[in-house]
From TrEMBL:
One of its GO terms (cellular component) is cytoplasm. Coiled coil: none annotated. Gene3D superfamilies: Phosphoenolpyruvate-binding domains, Phosphohistidine domain, PtsI, HPr-binding domain. Keywords: Cytoplasm, Kinase, Magnesium, Metal-binding, Phosphotransferase system, Sugar transport, Transferase, Transport. General (non sugar-specific) component of the phosphoenolpyruvate-dependent sugar phosphotransferase system (sugar PTS). This major carbohydrate active-transport system catalyzes the phosphorylation of incoming sugar substrates concomitantly with their translocation across the cell membrane. Enzyme I transfers the phosphoryl group from phosphoenolpyruvate (PEP) to the phosphoryl carrier protein (HPr). Its EC number is 2.7.3.9. It is found in: Cytoplasm. InterPro entries: PEP-util_enz_mobile_dom (IPR008279), PEP-utilizing_PTS_enzyme (IPR050499), PEP_util_C (IPR000121), PEP_util_CS (IPR023151), Phosphohistidine_dom_sf (IPR036637), PTS_EI-like (IPR006318), PtsI_HPr-bd_sf (IPR036618), Pyrv/PenolPyrv_kinase-like_dom (IPR015813). This is phosphoenolpyruvate--protein phosphotransferase. It catalyses: L-histidyl-[protein] + phosphoenolpyruvate = N(pros)-phospho-L-histidyl-[protein] + pyruvate. Its cofactor is Mg(2+). Residues 37-107 form the PEP-utilising enzyme mobile domain.
Amino acid sequence: MDDAYLKSRMDDLDHVIGRIPAFLQPERPPVMKGLAGEILVCDNIAPSELAQLQAQGVVGIVTAAGSALSHSAILARSLHLPLIVNVPQLLSRIADGDVLIIDGADGSITVNPQADNLRDYRARLKEHAREQRELGRLRSKPSRTRDQVDIALLANAESLEDVTQAHALGAQGLGLYRTEFLFLQRNELPDEEEQFQTYRDAALGMSGRPVTIRTLDLGADKADRTGLTLSNEENPALGLRGVRLSLARPKVADTQLRAILRASAYGKLRVLVPMVSTREELLAVRRRMLKLTEQLRGEGHMVSDHVPLGAMIEVPAAALALESFIDLVDFLSIGTNDLVQYLLAADRNNEALGELYSPLHPASAARWPAMPG
């Protein structure tokens, strides 16, 4: 394929094309059986397939393509499902029925290991389980540094299952609840009621602890069938995504904000706006929140008296010009993945640039002192 853009979107195209037969068939295709205890080896994996495969008993996945920073990788980590990606000539090196050891910690794969190697890894699994039990005893203890500074340990989540796990593990709140998975892998947009129930359940699931809900951060780099994104963008990382998409699709943004504001009556919800570049973007969101709050109360809905508004600092312009909009926000969140990507002109999904892409690069580290508390 000669087109550079289509080459960069091959994973998304493969996922969509692979799901077309399921939508053309009048009945749901049969679920693969006999996967319990198996390691799946394949070309690539879509985020929507991970939870289903884990529910069927798959204990690990190895793919020929993909990136450690992809949404599939992020979701696999949250599911505690070992996933090793970007393995060259994978399908020609591993045969059906081979015994595998995959080590998600260092990315290593052992094909048909010797008996002593198997014993070693089984011992490591037991030791890992013991360490997890030991860590479990620390859940109720305060998160405090040696110089007596308290630090809130917050969890990331992208599903209600994540929320349940975060609460069980003693997280002091959710620092980021991603909402994209409500919009992905479906033919229609989620309505206000569906979103409200999800955000409400997240708030209730954290039992009064703060929950930060990030507004929709979809762009052409995240395949969806809802028609929200500009699928022909030549450079989706610099395109219509985050708050830019929300402002370009006000009805979609209002539906989400109404759902969040309604859910705020059930817990300590905060709104986090992604991909902020200018003061005007935050002004527009704050004005919409005020107008929608008044509208909802007029309809008889309960809304919290104060729903904090925050900005994600992931565009270099925002990091350099904080003083121009700091008065409009209640908190900030540093989005290191995109901020480093934009500062270093290094695609975070490009494995060939792995050594260059680093939050500890001098250009990246130089931005952290500028961030107010």
